[in-house]
Amino acid sequence: MYIRLYDDVCCISTPPSHYHRLPLGELYWTSRLPHIVSSTDVNICFAEKDYENAIKYYTEALELNPANAIYYSNRSLAYLRTECYGYALADATKALEIDKNYIKGYYRRATSNMALGKFKAALKDYETVVRVRPNDKDAKMKYQECNKIVKQKAFERAIASDEIKKSVVDSLDIENMTIEDEYAGPKLEDGKVTLKFMKEMMDWFKDQKKLHRKCAYQILVQVKEVLSKLPSLVEITLKETEKITICGDTHGQFYDLLNIFELNGLPSQTNPYLFNGDFVDRGSFSVEVILTLFGFKLLYPDCFHLLRGNHETDNMNQMYGFEGEVKAKYTAQMFQLFSEVFQWLPLAQCINSKVLVMHGGLFSEDGVTLDDLRKIDRNRQPPDSGPMCDLLWSDPQPQNGRSISKRGVSCQFGPDVTERFLEQNKLDFIVRSHEVKAEGYEVTHSGKCITVFSAPNYCDQMGNKGAYIHLRGSDLKPEFHQFTAVPHPNVKPMAYANTLMQMGMM
Ligand SMILES: [Mn+2]
Question: Can 311 be counted among the known catalytic residues?
Fold first, then answer.
């Protein structure tokens, strides 16, 4: 019996026993119908931004046909789009092992390395393409763009080691910055952030207007002072009657942040918040998000909490838009100050000695204690490994033990790792963010590892919900609240990101 599924292909309706492991072009048995796995399916997945299924299709195809460079290269792109840069790099490398003349493979590997901040490795691949295709203008442009970054990085390293880096604050004369008469926006009152100022500033931002640079600098200098006094592990106590709202990644989605305040109330002494990192990058309203969050930190230093994410770092900001956005809206110098402030963001927060919150997750090695976290000297760009790196970068995994990270940084940790960590530190569970989830949150490791993500329809394309968590002092039981994306002005995510990054993801 033959069933016609596509105009050009026919197949038998009996499913073979290994039906779930067939390559592209062969029979694939779904619950009701036999089905040809075609490149059309995968193209549909890409078109619908369903990268998870695209990855699934290519993985199935590769299981039966492991010598196909194109499949590896295409899966590499799907991994790039889902931020699995470690896997993306591995696949691009594999594609080139199979076919060293496969130009696309070099581009994919270069993009993966760029995403991982390995600019020299990326440059080598662009070099190869330029050598093989000397007349390719696009290749030449990419090579030059990447070369610029490598040189800039070398320059930054040279001056960094020359002298102890001076703070931008010392070279600012904020007092004498004048606010022009034409400026009709919000101003701090006697140099202080007030609730009135915060409300005016959010309305001002909503209309896509720019806060005066003097006010932005005032906020930055003051918040640096406040953050630098905090320990790396912040410890708070919620009384029986108190609750706190924990939000995950916001990623420059200012209008969704306003929506959280709409739904859950403005921050106040009685409505405390904890924002769990990744405030900036990707979304093109990162400046508005971060100035709003810093403003509330100044207004309510004891009940408005911020933790550092892996995107509050120079490497990420250079690639994913925040540096470009600050330069476009203000100056390079102001970005430098942002960078200094980010280095003072605490890395973890413990609630009632029972719940530990951090952006990424647990550690590459057992035995890390809360005391180790207290001792982290955090005023720096995160190192490539160790507890500070893990707190910002790691992800949970369903299977026991640890694995190499899909991101290419830090590790993945299993339920047994979580169990041991909680037991040693007498904790109930951890709350982390860092990964987009369809429902806005996810409960794993038998309820001991919770993910919360607060950027709905992430990058205008993931279709996910956002969520925030209520924790009450009385029982510390997480209560989840979901929300969907609200419209924003027509400025696309990644509008300020590095052009190489934008093109590499195409
Ligand atoms: Mn993150």
Answer: yes
Q: What is the DSSP code (8-state) at residue 375?
A: T
- Answer for the pair 133, 139: CB distance below 8 angstroms, yes or no: yes
Å from CA of 74 to ligand 1 middle? 24
Buried b (16+ CB within 10 A) or exposed e, 338-347: bbbbbbbbbb
Q: What is the mean pLDDT of the chain?
A: 90
pLDDT band, residue 19 (cuts 50/70/90)? very low
Q: Who has greater pLDDT, 280 or 37? A: 280
CA of 267 to the centre of ligand 1 (A): 23
| Contact assessment for residue 31 and residue 25, using Cβ atoms and an 8 Å cutoff | no
pLDDT the model gives residue 501 = 81
> How many Cα atoms within 13 Å fall on the side-chain side of residue 495?
18
β partners of residue 244: 471
Q: What is the mean pLDDT of residues 95-109?
A: 94
For residue 210, report the distance from its CA to the centre of ligand 1, in Å: 27
Contact 187, 216 (CB under 8 A): no
Contact 454, 466 (CB under 8 A): yes
What pLDDT was estimated at residue 344? 98
Phi and psi, residue 496, nearest 5°: -105, 5
Helix, strand, coil distribution of the chain in percent, nearest 5: 45, 15, 40
Cα 435 to ligand 1 centre (Å): 7
Report CA(500)–ligand 1 centroid distance (Å): 21
pLDDT band at 12 (very low <50, low <70, confident <90, very high): very low
Q: How far is CA 358 from CA 285, 291, 315, 390, 408, in A?
A: 23, 21, 20, 10, 19
> CA dist 380 to 324, 340, 345, 500, 503, Å?
21, 8, 10, 26, 30
C-alpha 151 – ligand 1 centre gap (Å) = 27
Catalytic residue of the set 311, 359, 445, 488: 311
Res. 339: pLDDT tops 80: yes
CA dist 152 and 147 (Å) reads 9
Instruction: Tell how far the Cα of 332 is from the centroid of ligand 1, in angstroms.
Output: 24
Residue 129, token pair as written in the block: 């393409």
Burial class (CB in 10 A: 0-12, 13-18, 19+), 42: buried
Cα 455 to ligand 1 centroid, rounded to whole Å: 11
Identify the structural domains of the chain with CATH numbers, from first to last.
Answer: 39-154 (1.25.40.10), 169-505 (3.60.21.10)
Q: Residue 216 above 60 pLDDT?
A: yes
Decide: 345 and 264 in contact? Cβ < 8 Å.
Answer: no
33: CB partners within 8 A, 6+ apart:
3, 5
